[in-house]
Amino acid sequence: xxxxxxxxxxxxxxxxxxxxxxxxxxxxxxxxxxxxxxxxxxxxxxxxxxxxxxxxxxxxxxxxxxxxxxxxxxxxxxxxxxxxxxxxxxxxxxxxxxxxxxxxxxxxxxxxxxxxxxxxxxxxxxxxxxxx
Length: 132
Description:
Elements: H1 2-9, H2 13-18, E1 20-27, E2 35-36, H3 38-51, E3 53-62, E4 68-77, E5 80-90, E6 96-104, H4 106-117, H5 120-131
Parallel strand pairs: 1-6
Antiparallel strand pairs: 1-2, 3-4, 4-5, 5-6
Helix pairs in contact: 3-5
Domain SnoaL-like: 2-97
InterPro entries: NTF2-like_dom_sf, SnoaL-like
Protein name: SnoaL-like domain-containing protein
């Protein structure tokens, strides 16, 4: 998904949010329960953009119907390098209705979980403010 990739690479988080459907479901690489809704997804993405260092998309994969995409990336969290993939599904209107993130190795996932866990109250507050 070119628009999402370009917005993320430009750190244009307002443009990223504009690409999300109201009923988007975000599945985290470190939390079992998915997060439903645009407000919480946007808040998570805004915070992860601050946690990731040296973030870079390396390749893009597309599905046959044009609604499924995978963006492979590398980043660091502190001194931990990680590789990951954003799996994106688009609804009929071309908006992201499912975003699933996977990361490896375990040490990178643990560093990400710790960094994002420390921000969870801020993320929840931001999501509540955006929902109003």
